[in-house]
Amino acid sequence: MTTVGEDGSSQTWCPSGEAHAPESVVLGVRSGQDGRVVYLADPVPAADVLGEVPQGVEPRRVLRFASHCVSDCVNRRGGDCTLVERVLSRPAAQEDGPVPRCHLRARCQWWKQTGVAACARCPAVSTRHHAGDVLADLVADPATTQEQLDEWIAVAG
Ligand code: SF4
Hints:
Number of domains: 1
Helix content: 25-40%
Structural class: alpha+beta
Bound molecules: iron/sulfur cluster
Distance between the termini: 36 Å
């Protein structure tokens, strides 16, 4: 299936993207202690805000960025993103919430691939996560198989 974005392009975008790609935009701002994303009403070029991030702070700790979904990404399998598959493998949790208003939807790879299921989990996805969060490490690791995830979740109960 080909999704055509607002700009008429079939290029899809990654909602857990790079801060420094030329096309990168700010998707949202991490807020509160749990770091959930509050989405911006309109995309802001990443280049316009990166200079405001204090030195020594990894930009993706405080902001979420969107950038092109690229064929050489470690998470790509054919036309699909395996990261969103792993994100959706996590057990449903309180962190799942209503579908956010989001400026990326028309061109979002995760939306194209899984629809509203990804949006419910999206605000809690961390591009950077806390040390010791084994499940988050497994979800983020492109080498993690579905079987490994299922096994870990079954053991953790
Ligand atoms: S809320 Fe949905 S459409 Fe928006 S970036 Fe997240 S997954 Fe994509």
